[in-house]
Structures are given as structure tokens and as C-alpha cells.
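Ticket #4471: structure output looks truncated?

Reporter: J.K.
Steps to reproduce: submitted the chain below (659 residues) through the standard prediction queue, then opened the result file.
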Amino acid sequence: MNLQNFTKFIKLKFVDFVTKQPSRLTAAPATCNSSMPKPQYEQQFRAVWLKDPAPKHWLSSVESTSGTMGKCKVCNTILVNRYADLKRHMDSKKHKYNEKIIFGPSQPKLPLKKNSEIQEAKVAEAKLALYICAHTSILQIDYLNDLCKDVFKGCPAGNNLQIHRTKCSNIIKHVLSPHFQNELMEDIGDSPYSLLIDESTDISVQKFLGIIIIYYSKKQNNIITSYLDMPKLTDFNADAIVNAIKQVLHKYQLKLKHLYGIGSDNASVMTGVNNGVHAKIQRDVPHLVLVRYVCHSLQSSSRQGTYKLLYETINEGHEPLKIVQSCQTRWLSIETAVIRILDQWLELKTHFGLARTQERCYTAETLYNMYCNDINYALLSFLRNILTDVQRVNKLFQTYKPTKLFDDMIKLIEFLVNKVTLPNYSNIDIFKQKVEDYIDRSCYLGLNLNIQKLKDNNNLSLNDENMLRERAIKFVVALINQIKMRLPKNLEILRKVLNVSVGNALRHDKPSLLTLLQFFKKTDQEIELIENRWASIHLLKWKEIRDTKQFWCEVMNFKDASGENTFYQLAMFAISLLVLPHSNAEVERLFSQLNIVKCKLRNRLKVDTVTAILTVKAGLRFNKCCFNFELPNSVINKIKTIETYKVTDGDDEEIDIYI
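Returned output as attached by the reporter:
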């Protein structure tokens, strides 16, 4: 035996001794073959065994005097560097026993779903949450989820769909609503804006401040009126309202200096000279303009001069042949009430005539006597003609054309003045002169036909005719005075906005903007630049020459040969005038939406949920709905994450009460 064979013999004996296995040298059967035995080569430890799925969780490598060897971490045993020996050891009873003690019983592996299938389910859940938010109650998602899973069996989105009312509420509050808030914030940017504010109380007697914003939208290239926020008011005074407004502006990162106008009703807390909301904000924004809601003013003006007793007794309704209570958020009712009464004059007269005899009702007796007086019919016929014009102008304040309605407002005042004055006094300024000093007692009021019918039936004496004419004149004068009392500041603002209309802008002899520029605290350099651009804007050929808003939006996107907009400062100033509030129709629509979202069946919805729903509904207003609105991947990726499962105190009150 040479030295090499002796060394190999010693190594094998050492391994058999350590592993306590029978010697492979002695286990081999003896042969009498005179030829040399087949040489056996020593196998080295392979690192790939550590990555093998079968032994990787218990096999490790150790260094020894013989080189790198395999070791079982479970049995604490050195193994031979042979893969067959590793498998034999893994199947041994000792190893299985030790493995069971250390690792415990094996658990089945969870099936992993493809990322594409999960992504489709996320999109489906987001779309369903959009649908619920825009069209129905959150409670319905429980049934809609089960319905979709049943109908769309085999579809990856249907199989992985998991959304119920708690998750749906959180998606609306923590995923969809922040997305639309960020979109609105980016769209406003540094553009000039105005706010419409009004207070309201929901069905749970909580006070809210509805805030609507009017701004120039860069994405839509138009002046947009949109819902901004509806914070809860703990105290209804000027300080609380101002703090709520500033918190909302800070939330949307809107600069206070870009606020140009505030629209509100005539409540003293809003319009107080010293401590009103407008006065407090104006201390920080000197150029802030207050515009009172003209809808309320016109309605209140006409109400002061109408036939009071009859209107207090009979309320207008929109159901045919029914007299119902007026809508809580609509004030355009007097003209419709008068028309309804005139159309049903004989029926109402007969009804109250039967009620006074059969039920012995004093109110019915009074009303019957009023319906028997033909002078009342003639007076209401006169009121219908006047109130029709007032109603028409009132409805214009619900539109989005401020320059057009401002012109119609001035024409209404001129029409009323000309109705009761002599033709040579048609240019009376009602804000500086008294209309009563120029009254024509013999003016044409449109009563001649009714007066002639009454005379033919011998139901009208000369004294009654004079009284009827006097009452009609008093109504018109009272209406003019009521408008005068409510609209002096508004009318001046309306006239100023007319200066930037597209008709004036394209004229060669256009009016100067100097007074407006000085009112809004522009510097001398800005005034000179804007005046120069204003004087030359008609020299270019523009496409939008009919609509004032579209015209200035086109000017905002104008580029000259060098790629610059030389009319940018002028366009921004014109837009700052066009965003001034002129109507509270959007605030009334907001409160109508509030009454739909939070009603008797959903009276436990919290403020966060209600405002989130209103935010999403406002974001879907402009030619978008739940089925065609494309949500970005940043929003989709938040579905099925911790963002959709945020839990706050009192979340049990987010439930819709369904009866």
C-alpha cells in the first residue's frame, strides 16, 4: 500500500467513525480478482445544495480539517458530501422526528394570485365606489358586491371582488375624496377666485357653511363654479364663519390675496359694516367685493308689494290643482302663485263658498268674499304682468352669463320707472332721486281691459277705479324702492363688469378701465400696461366674439410669434371681474344635494362622509360619470391597502338607516 492509498483509507475511516456508519471498506465483498479495484473519487460539497428546495431549510455548510462538509441543523450531524446520502438522511426516522419537534407540523402554502387579476379587482372596486357615491346609498354595496360576484363568475375582477359598506365608505373618504380635492387644488392654482357662502342646517340639526368657488379652470379653459367644502359650524357668528373660511382656504392652499369677491345673503352677520364676515376679511384683502344675492333681493322686493293677505293664506304649489307648501330652497314662487290663483279663480271661489256654509269656517268666509270681489281679480291680473318680468330677471341669476344678466337687471329698473312716470322723466336715477316726485297718475298700467269689463257689468264705480289704479301705482313704486334699498352697491358692480364684455372689448372707442384698476389696487405700472393692451386688443382677429367668458379664455391662451402672451395681465384682470359672484343658485343646489345625501333614511352619516360624497359628486359634474371617469394608477394602487381601512372613533355612525 503506497502513501496515497493509505491517506485515502484514513479519511474514509474518519468519516465512518464520525457519522457512525459501517465501514465501506469492510462492507465491500471480497473479490479474488487479481485486477486493481475501480478507483473512488472524493466528492466536494456543492453550494447549489443550499438552494435546493428539499434540504435548504435544514442543511448548512461547515469547515473541517477535511474541507467543507454538510451539516444537518436539525440533527446536529456532519453528513457525507454525497447528494444520495443527503436524501437518505432526510428520509430517516431520526431526522423526521427532530424536524417535527423543531419546525412543527407543516402548513399549506397560500395560493398567490396574479398581479393583473388583483389590479382588475382594484379597478372594479373603485368604479363601484364611484357609482355608489354618485347615484345611491352606501348600504346598497353589500348587495351589489354579491350580485357582481354571482354574475361575473370566472372573471378575475369578479372572483377577487371584496367590497362592502365599511370598505366602500373608507374608499370614498380616504381615496376618492382626496383625489378630487387634489385635482381641484391643482386646477385653481394661482387664479383669481370668488366664494359663495351660505349657512344651512341638515336633518340632524347640525349647522353647516356651504362654500362654492368660482375660478378660472386651466384644464377646461373656462370659468367654473364648483363645490369647495362644507365645514361644520359650532357657533354661528362672524368670527366662527371667518375662521371656517380661512381653514378651508388653508386646506386647499389658496392664497387670500387672490380672493376677489364674496357672495352672501343680506344677513347682518354676513354684511355687517363693522363686524360682518365681509368687513373682517376685507381687513386682510382691501380690494374684496361684497355682492349680495340678488335672487333674495328681487323676491323680497316683489313680496313687499303683492297682495299680502291672499298670499299669506294661499301658498304656491307645483302639483296641478293642489295648494302645497313652498319648497324650502326655492324662492321663485310669487309669480307662479298668482298665475295659479288666476287660472283656478272660479274653482277656488266655489270651494270656499261650499266650505263657509258646510263647515262654518271663518277663514273660508273671508276668502270667499275676496274671490267675490272682481277688483281683486283685476289687481292680480296686473301683478301677473309685472311679476313675470321680475321672475324672468330673477331666473337669469341662476345662469352663467354675468354680463348678460347685468344688462337685463338695469333694463328691468328702467322698465319699472317708465311704467309710472312721464316719458320726459325716463332718465331718472333712482339712487339719487325719488320716483314719487315724478309719478304720472294717468299712466298706462295695462288695466284698461279689466276695467272696461267691470264697467260693462256695472261692478266698478269711479271711486273703485281710482282706488285700483292707485294700488297698482303704489305696488310699482314700492317695488322700485325695495330694489333701490337692496341693490345700490350691486348695481355699481354690475355696471363695471359690463366694461369688459366682448362687445366693449372689440370696439374702437371702448370705455377706460382706469376706475376699475384703481379700485382693485393695481400699481401704476400695471395700470399702464393693462390700459395699453386694452386699447389694442380689437386689432387682432378673435374666434370667440359672442360669449364674454369664452372670449377672455381665448385671450388667456393667446401666443404671439415669440410664444409669449402679451395680453396675459389684461386677461387675468378681466377674469377677476368675471369670477365675481352674482347668484346663489349654486349654493342652493349644494343644499339640495345635502338634503338628498343626508335624509331621514341616512340621518346618521357623519360630516366627513357627507363632505366626501359631495366632493366626489362635484368632481364628476363636468361631462363625467362613474363609468367613463378614468382614475389614475396612484388612486387605484391605494385600493386593498391600509389606506382603505383607516378606522376612526365613532365609525359605527357611518351606517345608512335603511327602512
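Triage note (M.O.): checked the attachment and the full C-alpha cell line is present. Confidence is low (pLDDT under 50) at residues 23-28, 301-332, 649-655.
Status: closed, working as intended.
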